[in-house]
């Protein structure tokens, strides 16, 4: 299995940090972009550069790539073990990577479901608050009406008392 050396493509050290990788990508993209570079291999070079940057700029993809790269280097240097064990180890690593992607997908779906539940809950809370506010307004209006009626009766009684005097 031939593995591309993304660090060589990006012209950075394997211990380069994200800022160095981003700067190298910008510089190389400016140099090899087909709109600026008319050489026949510019498009292929830019595709390789984009592929390398997509892996090296993503922490999870980079960690997976580095593990595979170390395994590949280890087994390439040990020719007696290379055929069987390297293939098995790489297959196990690929299986692990697939499982990790599946876990991330499940986590993403769970987070989306949680977000939807939170949105529905927030909407229900707003609806309950609106109904409560409406009920409070209705109670206040009834109380105000009752107060006006009591005041009107009290005034009527005061007039009757005044007239009787």
Walk me through what this model shows.
With 165 residues, this protein is an all-alpha fold. It has a domain at 1-57: DnaJ domain (Helix Hairpins, Orthogonal Bundle). It contains five helices and no strands. The model has no long low-confidence stretch (mean pLDDT 88).
CATH superfamily of one domain: DnaJ domain
The top level CATH class name of one domain: Mainly Alpha
Question: In percent, how helical is the residue content?
Answer: over 70%
Q: Per the principal axes of the C-alpha atoms, what is the gross shape?
A: elongated
Please report the distance between the alpha carbons of the first and last residues.
Answer: 116 Å
Q: Which CATH architecture of one domain would you pick?
A: Orthogonal Bundle
Structural class: mainly alpha
Characterize the biggest β-sheet: none
The CATH topology of one domain is Helix Hairpins
Number of contiguous helices = 5
C-alpha-based Rg, rounded? 37 Å
User: What is the percentage of strand-forming residues?
Assistant: under 5%
User: What is the averaged pLDDT score?
Assistant: 88
Q: How many DSSP E strands? A: 0
Quick gist of this model?
With 165 residues, this protein is mainly alpha-helical. It has 5 helices and no strands.
């Amino acid at each position: 299995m031939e593995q591309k050396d993304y660090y060589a493509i990006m012209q950075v050290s394997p211990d380069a940090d994200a800022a160095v990788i981003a700067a190298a990508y910008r510089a190389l993209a400016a140099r090899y972009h087909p709109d600026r570079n008319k050489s026949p291999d510019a498009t292929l070079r830019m595709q390789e550069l984009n592929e390398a940057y997509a892996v090296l700029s993503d922490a999870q993809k980079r960690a997976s790539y580095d593990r595979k790269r170390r395994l590949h280097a280890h087994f390439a240097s040990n020719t007696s073990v290379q055929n069987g064990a390297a293939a098995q180890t790489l297959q196990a690593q690929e299986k692990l990577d697939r499982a990790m992607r599946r876990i991330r997908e499940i986590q993403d779906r769970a987070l989306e479901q949680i977000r939807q539940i939170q949105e529905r809950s927030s909407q229900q809370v707003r609806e309950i608050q609106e109904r409560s506010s409406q009920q409070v307004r209705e109670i206040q209006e009834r109380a105000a009406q009752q107060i006006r009626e009591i005041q009107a009766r009290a005034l009527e009684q005061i007039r009757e008392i005044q007239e009787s005097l």
